[in-house]
Task: inverse folding
């Protein structure tokens, strides 16, 4: 931690900071300049934070020089992690395709979408039973009935299930069906929910807040990790900017940045970033090329009838191209598409 | 609703839209231009929305021409509303000052802060017992103990209490102590929590999401209203932009815009917008001058010891100036500072 | 300047930094921590900047602790400045109203607008002869003919003229007519233009870039100041955010922040911020209340016929209210509306 | 164009709009709804724009349904264009690598950087002689001396030159040396400069404004095209957002969006987007994969001594990897890296 004293700071002000740091068991190194003095702090950052140094007389600025998260940081865990979902890995050696319908609507639509997903190379099935919607008048999902449909389709296709949970109260229920719990962009700072999934015993996919910094995203992951769950996959899904041609702006740079700061896998959601079907394939190629550990994609057998986000779902005609991308791009990065051979059996 | 057909749209595409609109009980007015055709829709927007017209062949764009919220809209409720909190009004005739500590820490700190608030003209006491914090390692609030302290200080000062609730699970508990439930910026789209406070039988203060549009904010209010609770006060608290000199950018324009779109009262939080003590008084003046129905301000007897947001709390020296602002500015807008004479007794 | 070394930095890396700093005539104070080392630099920042320390081996971050502008900084010039435009002051003791048409269209429209402006309390006339327009197909201004109209209206009303210059090539021409040169938001980082107005011998109004930070704005002012011209007035006019209900988001906090960092006067443009007539008066009140040294407002005798930004121009009916605001609000801040008594005669 | 009437609009208001549209030679189709009326306009949009319909009584909103640019639009020019720079193509069939130093510093540094660029597969040389810098105290480029160095290096390496022009006054000079004129992000709305390069008879690379929408970018291209120059290459270089881990946020989606709206080639600048060396290669891979027609990259023989943007320049060790990416990725998109065989001789 570095304290920058204002030009009006007195010697007493500086003395006082040095004393406080000592009481917190730290050491303060004072650099006196012509117009300003800088104090470097060495010791326990948590204890320094409790001193509220920013509020002290003469202090102009306090700058943190280490990251505020620990368990998810790469500093003490240089090896990148692999998270297994129903036996299927998401990690640095492969590229994992997760696909399925935005919302579970009927058994038939879900099964058809799962089969489309599988044909394109997916090894995990996505599908929403609980949908967070901006409007209270929009379709909110089938709830537990949707979870049952998903479980049934897993039975038929062998694809483990990734599904969203929107309320701490529902975590136990959703976890009893799902292989991976998804936290959506509007809930990235719903700390009660983060703590609940941290205790649920299932891997978690944590979307980035649509206006969240990468640091805040990692702090949210830390909330989950702190409850004992390190099976977390980060998912970049576009951030909010002034541009209106796309629903959000996909921040591909977030992938290498987050992978350097954290050991957790990082994937991309090309469907919700742009919100336009014509962008899904170009953004999927960019996602794999930038080094994402996976992609999660909306597919729908009849997008014109979809109850949610139909306009961005890939249709049958696009899936051959998706399959080609997933097969041809990963090898250029020394990876392969995750397939059945990477999965490990899960004990019953 | 207006449908803009793409230049590649065929007569059959247009025909098909007209037919669909008819099946939904609406009428379609077709305007054929040289390069494009426009279809104006008249009828029930909800039913049109369910048609997924955006996904149909030939459709280039779908433009909504009415607002997506109803209960909180001013269209059918031209009179601006007044919300009463423990008898104290927040509405178009007065300017209400809400003040208190960011976090409840001790009985003494809370009482001192409440007395400072009262001396400055406050008629409502703010104070957090449950604190949503970006870091899991930061002080998270005293919980129910904090609520008891608040209730005790209300007893002593007569100030009704505004306090935050962060988890749907805690709504009943918090509502049993509080006079008004506050929804923080990170929970503005926590729909489970919105629905829970909608049923809690207490007025709600709904902060704007730090990256939420005004329309999304009103949609979130609609979630609360839909459960039967129209005692909602909107609170602008700064939005996230590229500027780093302030914690957030206070959007004063949001006050007249939201007051024009909705009948609900709109207040401003000058403390959390800038995150700097030196900005609180200038932003408070701007808030009253732009037409806010109230302001909510952090005060702390000893900000250098505060466990939360100390650097932005007003101290004793600033409070005389705050009192002057609250007394002198409202009359220029034909209002008065809310005081004891505006409160109505609340039946026990 | 503070250098933060990465956890992988070697003793040689640190040694090397210390040596470089010494060659630049500075001193380096090394604070060794458990996981990181911090080096505080004292000396000439310009010379340190030339060392490219950020690129050196072992360096994780370089943090500047002093502002990068000098002439416009308040550090060495604690007194706030007053700028005189044709004798009329813009500064800390008064609030100056600048008003007039967005674009000069005809002699009659300009004269009528000037008379409206004067009646509302304006002591300076704004009006554009050269208009920067996003579309090459939009009205680009009357050019020199517009300047002649403005000069003629100045003759008739006694109001000094503020007008925009968009091309370094035109600075001499515009300066031969204008009393103050305006730099628009799209040209805030047009450094050739800034340097040209720096040499033109006329006061300059520098709008903030619509996506510029306050620091960048002050750096742009420094470009002008560096050419010997310190008669600069900063003008906040809204920044670009994700919100679409307003054209831009007026950042009122920028006024106290810029006034604290710089000695230059700071005014607000409430017309172009919101881009909506119904917001102009509320934002004007907020501008004066937050402490702006002036406001600049669009007025038009017949806004429905305006060739530019008609929808945001105040009309006759609003001007009485504007006059009242300009008369009643400044005294609450210990100021008065700038009027004829504040002007000093300008030698011919 | 579609006019949405407010709920308070009278039959006379509607009548009046219909009449105005007729006087402008257009047709108005009126759709009367229960609470609102919509008027679809068919005819000449330019003439409608001149009516200022938004300011008329009863009008709530005016929505444009066609794009405001023409010459650069893909609507009337469905084939994507190829622009040739000194014979080297930038277009849909190849991927062109442009590389070189951010700033020209010495003959030797420039020649070494050009040789590095060529070895990595570059067929065009970038290098700045005029540098727009936020600070007036930063290195501003060598000016004409830099242009002479570039011309000399072109002679030695055979690489045509891309270089920035920052002042309309310098366009002729820069054009007398350069093969392609670059317009930087701070000048994207410097309309005087756009018009000057439009007449200069050389291809132009137009960077996107750092806070510019895609539509504004295309409007800026229209300014150039309007002066008779359609040899324009669009360059995405990152936009300004709230994220601070990267200098800007690279908006890869802008490539397919702009390619769909315009026939002009679109390239990406991965160096200036992130501002970090470790991001250049991942972002280059993403750029090629998303479908960019080229990339422009900073290389420097000794980045630790660079006078400008050293921290983001690729060094020798990275260039083999860059060469591999440029060779292996384009074929997956049915393209090849632009090489000598694609160049056509330029008549002397």
Result:
């Amino acid at each position: 931690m570095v304290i920058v004293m204002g030009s009006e700071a007195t010697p007493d002000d500086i003395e006082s900071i040095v004393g406080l740091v000592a009481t917190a068991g730290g050491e303060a190194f004072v650099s006196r300049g012509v117009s300003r003095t800088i104090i470097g702090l060495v010791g326990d950052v948590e204890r320094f934070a409790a001193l509220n140094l920013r509020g002290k007389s003469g202090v102009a600025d306090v700058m943190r020089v280490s990251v505020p998260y620990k368990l998810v940081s790469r500093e003490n865990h240089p090896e990148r992690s692999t998270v297994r979902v129903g036996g299927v890995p998401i990690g640095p050696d492969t590229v994992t395709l997760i696909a399925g319908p935005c919302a579970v609507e009927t058994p038939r639509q879900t099964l058809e979408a799962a089969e489309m997903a599988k044909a394109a190379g997916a090894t995990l099935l996505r599908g929403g039973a609980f949908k967070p919607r901006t409007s209270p008048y929009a379709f909110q999902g089938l709830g537990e009935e949707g979870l049952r449909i998903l479980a049934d389709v897993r039975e038929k296709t062998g694809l483990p299930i990734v599904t969203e949970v929107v309320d701490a109260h529902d975590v136990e229920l959703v976890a009893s069906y799902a292989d991976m719990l998804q936290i959506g962009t509007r809930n990235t700072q719903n700390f009660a929910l983060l703590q609940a999934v941290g205790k649920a015993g299932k891997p978690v996919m944590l979307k980035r807040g649509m206006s969240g910094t990468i640091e805040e995203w990692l702090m949210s992951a830390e909330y989950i990790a702190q409850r004992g769950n390190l099976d977390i996959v980060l998912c970049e899904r576009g951030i909010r900017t002034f541009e209106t041609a796309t629903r959000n702006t996909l921040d591909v740079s977030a992938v290498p940045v987050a992978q350097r700061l954290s050991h957790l896998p990082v994937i991309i959601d090309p469907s919700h970033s742009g919100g336009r079907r014509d962008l899904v394939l170009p953004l999927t190629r960019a996602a794999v090329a930038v080094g994402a550990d996976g992609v999660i994609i909306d597919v729908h057998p009849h997008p014109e009838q979809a109850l949610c986000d139909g306009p961005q779902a890939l249709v049958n005609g696009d899936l051959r191209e998706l399959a080609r991308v997933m097969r041809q791009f990963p090898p250029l990065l020394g990876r392969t598409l995750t397939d059945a051979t990477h999965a490990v059996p899960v004990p019953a």
